[in-house]
Specification:
Strand content: 15-25%
Number of domains: 2
Helix content: 25-40%
Structural class: alpha+beta
Oligomer: single chain
Largest sheet: 4 strands, mixed
Radius of gyration: 30 Å
Number of strands: 6
Distance between the termini: 101 Å
Length: 205
């Protein structure tokens, strides 16, 4: 024979289970109605896609130790800093490709950020200094050698000049700090003038 206290406990548990089931059904019904009414679905903004534009990239060629202009069509943001990062990302993607004439691993992710600042002493002229912040991984994996490193630095400077003519000077950082050299040779403590990196196909920088 089942004790009385167990019967009472069973009835209490049964009532609690029925109550919880009814509450869950109510919550489910409300959620279903809100879903049908579109109340729980936030409008999804369409991703902003920059229009494709013609951009001149100045590509290094190790075989001829030269800088060669190439025109590419790629989406370019309106913001100058983002625009600079986009073209340099494309340039480094070319270097990471298997058929590259200037093999460097890393691709677009190697450019962490590009900051544009007024050139000191020339604020009214509109001339700008580009601070290119590269990743430590890119610097660590870059092939060592004066010519190879110089081609990388000069191709970046020349590409910035071709895309943003107001950029007259370029400084380099690696992981946000100044680094003596790129991979042991090319000086990263100096300020580069973009007009010194003007590309001429077949000529040596």
């Amino acid at each position: 024979m089942i004790p009385r206290y167990q019967k009472v406990l069973f009835v209490i548990l049964l009532i609690a289970a029925l109550g919880m089931g009814f509450k869950l059904w109510q919550l489910r019904d409300r959620a279903h109605k809100r879903l049908l009414a579109g109340q729980t679905i936030a409008p999804t903004a369409a991703p902003v896609v920059s229009p494709a534009e013609q951009a001149t990239l100045v590509v290094a060629n190790d075989l001829e130790n030269s800088l060669v202009p190439q025109v590419h069509s790629l989406p370019l943001p309106a913001d100058p800093g983002a625009r600079a990062r986009a073209v340099l990302g494309k340039l480094l993607d070319l270097y990471a490709a298997p058929e590259s004439t200037h093999q460097i691993a890393g691709g677009a992710a190697s450019v962490d950020q590009v900051f544009l600042l007024p050139v000191q002493g020339a604020k009214d002229s509109g001339d700008q200094l580009a601070v290119v912040n590269l990743t430590g991984t890119f610097a660590a994996s870059h092939p060592a050698g004066l010519e190879t490193e110089s081609l990388t630095v000069l191709s970046i400077c020349a590409t910035l000049r071709a895309t943003l003519p107001t950029v007259k000077e370029v400084r380099f950082l690696v992981d946000g700090v100044e680094r003596p050299t790129l991979a042991g040779h090319a000086d990263l403590t100096r300020t580069y003038l973009t007009n010194e990196a003007a590309p001429v196909e077949g000529t040596r920088p």
